[in-house]
Amino acid sequence: MSYNIEKVAILGAGTMGAQIAGHCANAGIPALLFDLNDELVQNGMNVLTSLKPAPLYDKKIVALIEGCTYENDLEKLSDVDWIVEAVAEKMEIKHKVFQNIVPHVKDDVILSTNTSGLSVHGIAEVLPENLLKRFLLTHFFNPPRYLRLVEIITDLADDDVVQTMVSFLEDVLGKGLVYAKDTPNFIANRIGVYGMMAALNLTEEMALTVEEVDKLTGTVVGRPKSATFRTADVVGLDILTHVANTSYERCIDDEDRDMFKIPEVLTKLIEDDRLGQKSKAGFYKKTDDGIMSLDFKTMEYKPQKRAS
Q: Which terminus of the chain has a lower count of CB atoms within 10 Å, N or C?
């Protein structure tokens, strides 16, 4: 049986959910964007027209996205071809969301999760047998318009479901796929967050500045100019911490497990609600005087010094 994906729904209007909806709209695919209330949905829509780099090819594309709430609009899921879950990285929340939508989806819907590292099989535990065959991981990376990678885990899904999603992700959304296994944090985050945590530790040990580390770990070594700390701000320091904690808690036999321990500077930033780009302050902070960088010793922001 073949499936056509002509309309999608994204569950969760946060930074990632909104941008996934936006990128589907970029490809001309109408999207429903769900969250708990109208305010959260509107915040997500605002992200699409204000965030930099721009999630949308053209701001007018936002017209293809319809804001919805779980309380009022679940019946609209009945004509959606693909539903991707992008809610908070807590298993109980994901379970509740899937349990709530199951009575409202059509028989041939495709379901996926955008989790960055939770067990895909664990998330699927609440699904009925018929939906297990149509469930997989589609893990996008932030910002999804610009980062080509999508990790997929397909072992629960039927072959025709997998073929449909592979074709859609590659040919319609322009993605490059990596097939992962259901291990903690999959592939990219297991490697990438290890590198970030190593950089964090070395920043303190060697008394380096934020801008010096980003100079050393950016374009000079063939990586994006966002390097380490700017990338962390874009991802979200809360997400970074969650992913690192997942590796620490679930990779008991990893010989470098201690690298995933959360350093004090990251803990303090999160306690202060300095979560990166989403809260307008993290390792960097944009002010009227320009972009400032964090001083690890004082936890205050200071003008950047050109790293040479």
A: C
pLDDT digits (tens, 9 = 90+) for 45-83: 999 999 989 999 999 999 999 999 999 999 999 999 999
- Cis amide leading into 55 (omega within 30): no
State which residues form the domain around 261: 188-303
**Is residue 3 included in any domain, yes or no?**
no
- Which residue among 119, 149, 179 closes a domain? 179
Does residue 308 sit within a domain? Answer: no
Shared domain for 136 and 269, answered yes or no, is no
Q: How confident is the model at residue 1 (pLDDT cuts 50, 70, 90)?
A: low
> What phi and psi, each to the nearest 5 degrees, are found at residue 279?
-110, 5
- Which pLDDT score is estimated for 134? 97
Task: State the pLDDT at residue 2.
Answer: 64
